[in-house]
Amino acid sequence: MPRPAALPKIVRGKSAVHGCGVFAASPIAKNTRIIDYAGELIRNDADCEAREERYLAEGCIWVFRVNRAWSRDANVGGNIARFINHSCSPNCYFEVIDKTIWIRAARNIRRGEELTYDYKPIGERTIQCRCRPGCPNKI
After folding, report:
1. How does pLDDT run across 63-92, given as a tens digit for each residue?
2. How many structural domains comprise the chain?
3. Which listed site, 31, 32, 63, 126, has its alpha carbon 20 to 30 Å from 103?
4. DSSP H helical ranges for 1-139
């Protein structure tokens, strides 16, 4: 069986976008799988909604909808992917395969560049986007 390709090296650091961010430690080629968005797999029910509301009140988005039935809560069992910030002009995108959420490079990414993707939130958008000064969007 062929050995899976190694994922690119990424590091957490201070972000100009918001709080902590994730940065490429070496160049990353377009369409490369960078990291899976880890977290507790939870059903989309009242508990999931309560968690989302609590995190949003703190100004965070940690719950990622996988499909109609399931979500991933990166605040519980999450990895460095939870610190990838939102951008309206991202350099990454997400791909859901079964219940795994992959963050992939939307274009070639330079060493030291912050990784971002469009969160594409469902429902009311309440957090002001910080992807660039004066961005009028909410996430």
Report:
1. 999 999 999 999 999 999 999 999 999 999
2. 1
3. 126
4. 46-57
